[in-house]
Amino acid sequence: MMIITTSSQSHLTPEIPMVHPTGKEKSEKDKMLAGELYNAQDPVLVADRLHSAAAGLPAPYG
């Protein structure tokens, strides 16, 4: 499903629907990666941050 809307620059812009291609609602991680609003306290995202910290990766906004 593709939704087309007009933007202020007068050209057509496709919008990504809030439903994942599998038919399920998008995960918070999918929303984050798409640049949409998401819940940063989602358990999957919290686990990813903890995993990154344990691996010694720098925090993005340390």
Mean pLDDT: 77
**Radius of gyration of CA atoms, rounded to a whole number:** 16 Å
Largest sheet, if any?
2 strands, antiparallel
The largest sheet has its strands arranged as: 1-2
Give the CA-based shape. Answer: elongated
In N-to-C order, the SSE pattern is EEHH
Low-confidence spans = none
- Cα(first) to Cα(last) distance is 39 Å
Number of helices: 2
Please give the share of residues in helix. Answer: 25-40%
- β-strand number: 2
Structure commentary:
The protein has helices spanning 28-33, 43-54; strands spanning 3-6, 12-15. The N and C termini lie far apart (39 Å). The model has no long low-confidence stretch (mean pLDDT 77). Strands 1-2 form a two-stranded antiparallel sheet. With 62 residues, it is α+β, with helices and mostly antiparallel strands. Strand 1 and strand 2 form a beta hairpin. The chain has a domain at 25-57.
Please outline what is shown here.
With 62 residues, the chain is an alpha+beta fold. The protein has two helices and two strands, in the order ββαα. Strand 1 and strand 2 form a beta hairpin.
Write the SSE topology.
Blueprint: E1 3-6, E2 12-15, H1 28-33, H2 43-54
Antiparallel strand pairs: 1-2
What distinguishing features does this structure have?
two-stranded antiparallel ribbon, alpha+beta, single chain, 2 strands
